[in-house]
Amino acid sequence: MRFISKLMVVLAALVLSACADRVEVPPAHVGKILTKNGYKPETVPPSKFRLDMCLYYCDKLVTLAIADFGHREQFKLFMPKDQLNMSFDVRMTGAINGEMIDNIFDRIPPSNSNISVSHVYNTYAQPVIRDVVRRVVAKYSINEIASSREALSQELFAEVDVALRGTPIVVKRLGLADVQFPKVVTEAKERAAERRELIEQEKAQFEIQKIQMERDLEREKMNRAIAREKAMGQKEVNDLLAKSVTDKYLAYRTLEVLDRMAESENKVFVPVEALGTIGLQQAVFGSEIKHVAKKSR
């Protein structure tokens, strides 16, 4: 009886030890069952299940992330055309090549039952990307890079995409970022920007002065037009006087002046011979001008 009890305890322990582990392949992952003879051929999609019961060697679940991932590579590159060092980043979005999953499980050892995407990237993609980026960027000058960053990013993407074909990594996006130009180049660009700003200010000031000068010119034109109109009016008056003041009319007006002088308390006796003098004619003519001016009003 005692023997039977001990045997039952041993059997119970064996049954408990033979219970398989409950495992999970999380979302955006795939898994494979690692047996004592290697991986099983089928790939396990995201799911929860129990491994097969075991006594001596138990199977294990190894997972691999297949979600898209982002990565940044930092560079400090000597630019042959400028003989200067330039720092920049290359940022990319990549993914695991679905056709290479079996190859990854066969060639990358797991760590804590997981094959990390960074391990795959560092093994297959990083050396290729760094080599391609250095080769392509070194072809250009710093000024060419500054003025054509978008075109250069497209070229880098195309070159890296070709270089990674047949590897477990697929590049989806790639481009330059955080470009740090040499200090001497940055200072030169700042000085150029300052010069452009001064030129713009000078242009603005010139436009202001141009407007002021145009306004002054218009004012002068108006003043000349006014003066011309006044001169034409005076000429018309002079022409009218020249036509209306004849010798007979001047003699008539002379008599009127003498008549008014006779009526004035300030009488002045003028000899008959003095009637033809220039002084008297000027007095008469001046009076006539005033008379005509009053009529014109």
From TrEMBL:
The keyword Glycoprotein does not apply. Pfam families: Band_7. Residues 1-20 form the signal peptide. It comes from the Bacteria. Residues 185-230 form a coiled coil. InterPro entries: Band_7, Band_7/SPFH_dom_sf. It is found in: Membrane. Residues 78-207 form the Band domain. The keyword Endoplasmic reticulum does not apply. It is a single-pass membrane protein. This is SPFH domain-containing protein. It comes from Microbulbifer taiwanensis. The lineage of its organism: Bacteria, Pseudomonadati, Pseudomonadota, Gammaproteobacteria, Cellvibrionales.
